[in-house]
Amino acid sequence: MIDSGNSYFILLISGVALFLYGMTMASSSLEKIMAGKITGLLNHLSQSKFLAILTGVVLTTLMQSSGAVTTMLVGLGSARVVNLRQVMGVIIGTAVGTTLTVQLISLDLTQYALPVFAIAFAFYFKAKKTIFKNLSLVFMGFGLLFFGMKLISISSHHFAENPMMTEIFQNVRDNPGYSLLISVVFCAFVQSSAVTIGLAMSLAMVKAITFYDAMLWVYGANIGTTSVALIAAAGGNYIGRQVAWAHFFYKTISVVIFYPFTQIFIDFMLTFDTTIARSIANAHLIFNVLSSIIFFPFINKGAELIEKMFPKAASEEFGTEFVNMNNYQSSALAVSYANREIMRTADIVLGMIKDSIRLFETNDPKDFDSIKDRDNKVDFLYRETKMFLLDHANKSTTVVHQNVMSMIMFLSDLERAADAIDINILALAIKKNALKLEFSDEGWTEIRQMHEQVVKVASMAINAYQNRDLAEAAIQLKRDLAKTEISLRENHISRLNRGLNTSINTSSIHLDLLSEYRRIASLLCNHAYNQRSQS
Hints:
Helices cover 81% and strands 0% of the residues. It is built from 24 helices and no strands. The protein is mostly helical and 535 residues long. The N and C termini lie far apart (86 Å).
């Protein structure tokens, strides 16, 4: 039998769980609906600090989580898609965007929680289009969020009346540092500033804590939410670490600036005739808006300081070796530099192809990480070399422009081949290892045969890029590979007809792997057909 105290404790845990699950559901569904626009917003980051802040506000509003946005920025930084100077404004904007959820939960909409959830649930099963299903999930998420807030509020009333809890809250009030520490730890644990501030609202409404204590919870929630990005940056490169720590220092310094004026800030908020929950939510909003205004003029200086604090390590010194926007004085030099960078990219892709077979031999995380790291390098070289070539093409003659387009097409095929390994082949290896499957002896021998031929085709295709005379040989090897794939598929089907269990269990992985290898070979030979037609 559960006693009264434990029952209310379970209500609190259940409320937090429903709140977090509802927020996650709403956030992921909103992200799916706006996926294309989110990508567009990130792709249009510019030198405009105001636009960057607005991007941060919009992204956080869409994703309902500043932690999720900063984690995404850490990932993009680790992949070298963005740098710290580009996203400093976005980091500031996320702090403002996250106040929307807190504003919503302060409106006491808990009475509508279950009706909204029930109606959205019905629409979800009636909806045919994906967008309507995702919209239904958004409202279901908000329904759960508000219902979780109701459970938190009910449990807070009990804790406020419990003598033991009353004594604990009194000790917390007597030692403000405890409130700050508890809120930081709690927010870091649940990874949501909204649920932390929501709990503070509930406790303040039943007078378990004061408005002053609640403000300390607001400060703690702002610092604690940075833990999400810090954890994500642990395995990233220097740019990812810069983004995560910039987020941490921005939040922490904001708290340090406001802390001495907390009582003055509270007295100002109390001049407005509203509920304690609304006052806390409004204080959270004003705190983040004022912080963004204070730091706005120092965005570039802040980025410069963080870059000095977290410089790139020697092991992270990866970049273009031959191209930059100033290293060509003639078309011949520009093409030569770009070709050297393209061949450097091709060497990385060829290495990925050679090592891809090891993904199915071992279950070593280092092999998986190595593939991902090299794909990030290919993406980086593709982007930088392409920008260099396009910049050069715009300043060159029509003939040179056509040559540049051919180079970009080969570079694009290299990048797509790397993606095929990183996304598709890696996924097949993960599936095989997760299900603990093994290829039949005959099947594995044939996969290795296919892999060896793909390596030969890739090597010849890359050499043919430099020597047009090898284009026909590359095409012939690719045709032989296509015939080999058909033969190996027939052999596999024959084993299936014989009822060989190992072949049956790995059939989809086996056939998909053959297809991916053939596709990679085809991508790398695309340029050979163009070279042959021009001969």
